[in-house]
Structures are given as structure tokens and as C-alpha cells.
């Protein structure tokens, strides 16, 4: 058994740079990923951020498609709670018509930003009538598959244009419930191991998807390779995430303590707590990282990994991506 490698990029804005430079580096990374044989290149969605430039993945996807020729390109992912499923279906049908057979639609449940950004994105919704995520996912599947059925309030409605080859569809999640939801709708499941490193949760989620869908799940991980293992570890050792736990039982992970505190303030919550954690990043030589990927592949039947490089300098990210692609996958995989 072997595995494919794909990439996820969040267009990090480094100190002294701006969003234009960050997006330029994302396109550069996508082009190189295509040359190196990576299977997919995905971009994320984050709002009101001074540190990440990808607020509109569908726009960035179209630009990357225009600047590449073979690699699959997609969203990792569209934050569906903010949008009309019909409009999302239209957008990705247009993309799939522009680049048939190369477009991926990944959707996620998280807000991708702080509460004020969420409020602005959802300002047109009546909170009492706002559909839940499962309802939105079902509607999106309907519009991507064809005209809405007769028992739908939108009977006969199609999301046009109809592309010659539709998008591949992925649900991003980090729990057995998300895995079950993906399987129930016939979508591929991507487990966010880069966001939730709990091994028991990972095992339960992957087993749930395989059991209920009969298909192999995909695992997303953060990894940084260097020819020198000490250098790789030094590059990621200062990385932190701050998880804010609100009094209503929800929790969110942010890149800085100030962001976590601001999240709670915008949510109007004075009774919160913040935990500082080390992000789950595989760091070392390309050989040691492939050995870890191989072990995960064998243990869980993973046939594809989506790798997110950490927010290091652009040249470091590029070098790490090249090393992983050029290093042979262990024979045991």
C-alpha cells in the first residue's frame, strides 16, 4: 500500500510582508507542487486576519487554476455556515467548467474567524430561521447533483452551469460525528489531524468513516521537513496555539493569546479560559516524516495525506515541500 501527498496552504503573512506577497508565494508554491507531483493543492478560508491572506478561497482557487495545468485545486475549506448552498454550488460549477476534472470542493463547520466577522458574514440571516450545518450540506449536495427534487421547496431548481466533470466533494472534520455525516452524504472525509492531534479521536473518526462508507479517509497533518532534523525542530518549537473555552461549552483554536482573548470579548463571554498548547507538527528529515506517514498509512489505511507546512518563511516552506516530494516513500508503505 502506498499513499499520495497533497498540500494545504493558508497564505501566511510574515512580518515585514503584506497580503499581496503572501498570495504570490501561495501561487508559487502551487506551481512547484504541480511540478513535484503533488496530487492536490488546497487553500483555506480565514476572515479579518492580519496574519493569513486567504479570506476568499474560491477566488484564490480560480487564480491558481489559471496558473497551473494539471494539479487538482480546491478549498480546504469553504466555511459553509456563512453561505447559501445554492451560491456555493454555482461558484464551484463555474470553476469546474473553467477547469474540468481539476476542482475540489472542501467544506468545513468552523467559522474561520472571530465572532464579529461571523456576524458580518451572516448579517442577512434571520437567526431563528438560519439552517443548521447538516441541512446546508444536504442542500449543497442536492444542488451539485442536479435539479432539486419535487418534495423540495426549490423543486426543479438547478445550479448552473453544469460542468462536464463535477467537483470532488470533501467534508473537513475532526470527530466521528463529522466522519458519519460525510459518509451519509457520500462525500469524502478529511480528518483534521493538524488541528486535533488526539490519537483516540483520530482512530475513532477514521474507523467510523471507513465502516460507514467503505472508502478510505484522508488525513490532514502539519509537517516540516529539513535536511537537518535539529533545524526542522528549531523552526517549529516556538509555534503555539491558544485554545479558548467559552462558558457555553464551545472551544476555538487561535494563533495568539491576544486573538483568543479577543474572541471571548467579541462573544460577550467573561467566564472563559485559555489553554496554551503546542501544535501537532511532524518535524524532522523527510525520511523520518515519511516513516511516520507510512506508519499512519498502515495503521489506518490512509491512501492520501494533505500536508500543511507551518507558517515559516516562504523559502523554508518551499524547501520542505521539495524534500518531501523527492524522498522515496518507504517500501513498507
Automatic annotation (TrEMBL):
A single Gene Ontology CC annotation of this entry is: cytosol
Q: Its Enzyme Commission number?
A: 1.-.-.-
Recorded protein name is: MsnO8 family LLM class oxidoreductase
Q: What class of enzyme is it?
A: oxidoreductase
Q: Name one GO molecular function term.
A: oxidoreductase activity, acting on paired donors, with incorporation or reduction of molecular oxygen
**Luciferase-like domain spans which residues?**
12-278
Entry similarity comment:
To bacterial alkanal monooxygenase alpha and beta chains.
Sorted alphabetically, the keyword list is: Oxidoreductase
Which InterPro entries does the entry mention?
Bact_Lucif_Oxidored (IPR050766), CmoO-like (IPR019949), Luciferase-like_dom (IPR011251), Luciferase-like_sf (IPR036661)
Q: Which Pfam families match?
A: Bac_luciferase
| Lineage summary | Bacteria, Pseudomonadati, Pseudomonadota, Alphaproteobacteria, Hyphomicrobiales
Q: Which Gene3D superfamilies match?
A: Luciferase-like domain
Amino acid at each position: 500500500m502506498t499513499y499520495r501527498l497533497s498540500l494545504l496552504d493558508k497564505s501566511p503573512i510574515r512580518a515585514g510582508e503584506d497580503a499581496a506577497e503572501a498570495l504570490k508565494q501561495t501561487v508559487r508554491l502551487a506551481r512547484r507542487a504541480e511540478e513535484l507531483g503533488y496530487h492536490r493543492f488546497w487553500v483555506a478560508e480565514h476572515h479579518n486576519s492580519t496574519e493569513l491572506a486567504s479570506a476568499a478561497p474560491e477566488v484564490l482557487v480560480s487564480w491558481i487554476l489559471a496558473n497551473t495545468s494539471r494539479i487538482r485545486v480546491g478549498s480546504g475549506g469553504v466555511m459553509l455556515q456563512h453561505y447559501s448552498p445554492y451560491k456555493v454550488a454555482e461558484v464551484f460549477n463555474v470553476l469546474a467548467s473553467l477547469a474540468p476534472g481539476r476542482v475540489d470542493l472542501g467544506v468545513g463547520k468552523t467559522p474561520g474567524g472571530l465572532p464579529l466577522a461571523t456576524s458580518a458574514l451572516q448579517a442577512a440571516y434571520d437567526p431563528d430561521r438560519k439552517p443548521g450545518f447538516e441541512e446546508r450540506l444536504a442542500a449543497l449536495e442536492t444542488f451539485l447533483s442536479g435539479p432539486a427534487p419535487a418534495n423540495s421547496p426549490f423543486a426543479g431548481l438547478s445550479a448552473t452551469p453544469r460542468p462536464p466533470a463535477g467537483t470532488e466533494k470533501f467534508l473537513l472534520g475532526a470527530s466521528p460525528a463529522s466522519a458519519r455525516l460525510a459518509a451519509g452524504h457520500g462525500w469524502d472525509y478529511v480528518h483534521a489531524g493538524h488541528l486535533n492531534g488526539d490519537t483516540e479521536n483520530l482512530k475513532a473518526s477514521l474507523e467510523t468513516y471507513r465502516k460507514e462508507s467503505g472508502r478510505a479517509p484522508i488525513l490532514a497533518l502539519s509537517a516540516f521537513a529539513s535536511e537537518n532534523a535539529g533545524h526542522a525542530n528549531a523552526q517549529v518549537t516556538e509555534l503555539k496555539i491558544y485554545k479558548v473555552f467559552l462558558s457555553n461549552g464551545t472551544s476555538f483554536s487561535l494563533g495568539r493569546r491576544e486573538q483568543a482573548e479577543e474572541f471571548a470579548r467579541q462573544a460577550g463571554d467573561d467566564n472563559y479560559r485559555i489553554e496554551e498548547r503546542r501544535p501537532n507538527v511532524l518535524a524532522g528529515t523527510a525520511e523520518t516524516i515519511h516513516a511516520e506517514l507510512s506508519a499512519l498509512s498502515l495503521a489506518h489505511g490512509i491512501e492520501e495525506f494533505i500536508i500543511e507546512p507551518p507558517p515559516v518563511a516562504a523559502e523554508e516552506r518551499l524547501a520542505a515541500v521539495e524534500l518531501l516530494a523527492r524522498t522515496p516513500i518507504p517500501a513498507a508503505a
